[in-house]
Amino acid sequence: MRKIYISILFIAIFTIVFGTVTYAWITIATVNNIQGLSLSASTGNELEISTDGFNFSSTLDSTTLEELFKDHSLKDVTTLDGINFYSGGLKSGGLAVANKDYVSFELWFRTTRKERNIYLINNVSNITSYDVSMEGTYVVSKGISWKSNTDFQYDVEDYISKGESRTYYAKDSIRIGFQEVIEEPYDQREDSNLKHLIFDPSMNQSRGYGKAYGAYSHFINYTGVNITLPYEFPKTIYDLTKPMEDNPYQASNNESLISELQPTGTYDDEGIEIYQSKVIVSIWIEGWDADAFDAILRDYLKIQLQFKSLSQPSV
């Protein structure tokens, strides 16, 4: 069974207040074995973060998320909506289990600001590398040199021969999902109004879900098992929302809107109402991705997410 064991070298959740703009990062580094976890966090007064929905603060101790990631692993799973997960893809199975087959954790955001919409922003995956840290959202990996054990079609016009060595990257098959969930009693929305999305940080739609080349071609040529390509495809985004050029506090579109903070009926010490929401974040290897080769299981991953609170686009 395909499996990547997760070692969380560090997870940092923090916000930086720049004028009236709020940023938040979550950083995850993964390798083959669990070697420990440390967490540091700080937030300004503009945005507070919680991992349980009760204890909000501007600082988080180093053990806050340790149990959430203990003994977790990544296997190849698949989903059409980023909510319901199933084992495999090429190697189909039953229901996938959160934090056994893929990583899943909860975050709560709250603020008293008028910008009450949380967006995933600033994908810099294609301009950074495993050894370089920079501001923004990215998924990067070291890469693994692998000698192919069969002939197969790597891409539309690219064929790999048995014995040919190339470098393959786990980053190319990663998906990140966001699912907004209702928190009673303050959140009175209908389920149909909740946000959920799947993001492919590789931004390479041509090597995305259910392609006849890549991992699929290798699998059928090596195993001799002919499996049918999927006919349904998940709605996936490849680009992230940018702030308006003439208004850095307003979103240009809702492409990567992950949550709309809701009024809670509670107020801060200055009498300003607190807005809050809950989001489930999921990270997985998409089993139907063209780059989901067995070789990537030995790769090293680093994942960083950057969020920004903005007003929605004007109509």
Salient structural properties:
about 325 residues; 9-stranded mixed sheet; 2 helices; 25 strands; about 5% helix; elongated
Could you tell me the number of beta strands? 25
Distance between the termini: 49 Å
Content-based structural category = mainly beta
Shape: elongated
Order of helices and strands: EEEEEEHEEEEEEEEEEEEHEEEEEEE
Please give the structural blueprint:
Elements lengths: L3 E2 L5 E8 L2 E10 L8 E4 L5 E3 L8 E2 L5 H4 L3 E2 L1 E4 L5 E3 L15 E9 L5 E4 L17 E4 L2 E4 L4 E4 L2 E3 L4 E4 L5 E8 L14 E4 L15 H9 L12 E2 L5 E2 L2 E5 L5 E4 L1 E6 L5 E14 L14 E10 L5
Parallel strand pairs: 2-4, 8-24, 18-19
Antiparallel strand pairs: 1-7, 2-3, 3-25, 4-6, 5-10, 8-9, 10-24, 11-22, 11-25, 12-25, 13-16, 14-15, 17-18, 17-24, 20-21, 23-24
Walk me through this protein's architecture.
The chain is mainly beta and 315 residues long. The chain has one domain. It has helices at 66-69, 215-223; strands spanning 4-5, 11-18, 21-30, 39-42, 48-50, 59-60, 73-74, 76-79, 85-87, 103-111, 117-120, 138-141, 144-147, 152-155, 158-160, 165-168, 174-181, 196-199, 236-237, 243-244, 247-251, 257-260, 262-267, 273-286, 301-310. Residues 5-22 and 28-44 have low confidence and may be disordered.
